[in-house]
Write a structure and sequence with these properties.
The protein has about 280 residues and is α+β, with helices and mostly antiparallel strands. It has 2 domains: about 110 residues, no CATH class; about 110 residues, Immunoglobulin-like (Sandwich). Helix content is about 30%, strand content about 20%. The strands form 3 sheets. A 4-stranded mixed beta sheet has the order 1-10-2-5, with no helix packed on it. It has a 4-stranded antiparallel beta sheet with strand order 4-3-6-7. Strands 8-9 form a two-stranded antiparallel sheet. A hairpin with a 5-residue loop joins strand 8 and strand 9.
Amino acid sequence: MNEKRGSLHLLTGVVIGVLIGLLVSLVLLPVQYIDTEPRTLKESDRASYREVIARAFLVEADTPRALARLALLQDANPSGALVEQAQTLLVSGGKDLEARALALLAAAVNQPSMVITPLAVVLPSPIQNVTNTVTAPALQSTNTPTETLATRTPAVTITPRPTYTPQPTQGAPYELLEQSNVCEPEMKQSLIQVYVVDAAGKPVEGVKIEISQPNGGVETFFTGLYPEINPGYADYTMTQGMTYNLRVGEAGGLVQNLSIPVCEDDEGNEYPGSIRLDYQQPK
């Protein structure tokens, strides 16, 4: 009887000790990591780290240095993670510059020899306050007191801040090789399917695609979100009765009046189809 009670007390003590240890380590004295490696960061901090690298890449235009920094994260698919983050940033209403930087860095992962034009850095112009003090000589007489002119401060001259115009470029613009209708009855949606390859025929991730409607409104998305289909693939869901204009890359030509094509099955029944656009960089 005493042996059972002793064993129970021992087990209870161990459990209480473990709980106290967890309380101290997790709540009272949590572990604080200092100067940790980027690969150990949580996902939100990893996203911030990627964005910092991408913004620096726009200014420095140093591809090897950017890729070396990115490698510290040890992502399983670095370009895919960058493209997905760029797309998420656009969907959430983020700034286009950050999304473009992430997409360009994703393209650099697949094309390490890619060269971009660095973004100009705008520094504020120093403003100097100049104060001129003018004092007239005193005129003294028996009847006239000393007279002194008031101090005059001229208005501050403001030098206009320069605006930057250079934008990052990603090699030669992509050219439309072929446009075709896709008639597959099993497809549940009508898509604009875009395939992008470089001059060597290799699929390119992170290519910016803009799609707009004639009555206004522009949406942006990137290649690389569906690597299981093709790393250089992107798509957009069309709406019946709408027409679209599409541009691939920063300086690509505009493809106009894209709309859902009409397809027919073997029995002559009509159904909505999709559109495929194949792009390539010129050699």
